[in-house]
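Reading a protein record of the kind used here takes little practice once its layout is understood. An example of such a record is reproduced below.
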Amino acid sequence: MHRRHLVLACLALLAACNLSERVDPLPDSVPGPHQILSYAVEPEDTEPDLTTGLETQYAYLPAEASARVGRLVIFIPGTFGQPQGYLRIVQAAAQYGYHAFGIAYQNDRPIGNYCGTTTDSTCTERVLREFFEGVDHSPEVEVTEAESFTNRIRQMLRHLDAAQPTEGWGNFLTTNGTPRWELISLG
């Protein structure tokens, strides 16, 4: 049952992404592992309106600019998970050329529990979209725009770019400040 929810979550996240822009493929071989830089970021330092998911978030990237592939990996922990529990995954992405971080969010309840015994076949998708966008898609959950995945990602990138402007974190945001989903992989 958990695998089904993970698949649905990935499909919902992909559906919400704008993948219309062409992206050049990665080089045939990405050398590594590389030395990495690391940052610990408190979510409330990125967005003062957060009230849930306040566990420390961790960001990594290759120390050498020439080792960076211009892509971002974002790890979103599952139910009850915290970013610190998945550091090795995020670190491994950075060792092989990616900017990478894990985000904290309100995940104290399995997605399946939100929909309970409803007969609405779109319930899970609508709950996931609300978590992703912070727009009211479902009466089963209340996620504000500030608490949404999209805003947490945007604010984390803005924070990292302001703190480390030469490291390329801002390259993953459009000029109007939205994530450049075509350069981002979610896991």
Remarks:
- The CA atoms of residues 126 and 137 lie 5 Å apart.
- The chain is about 30% helix and 10% strand.
- The longest strand covers residues 36-41.
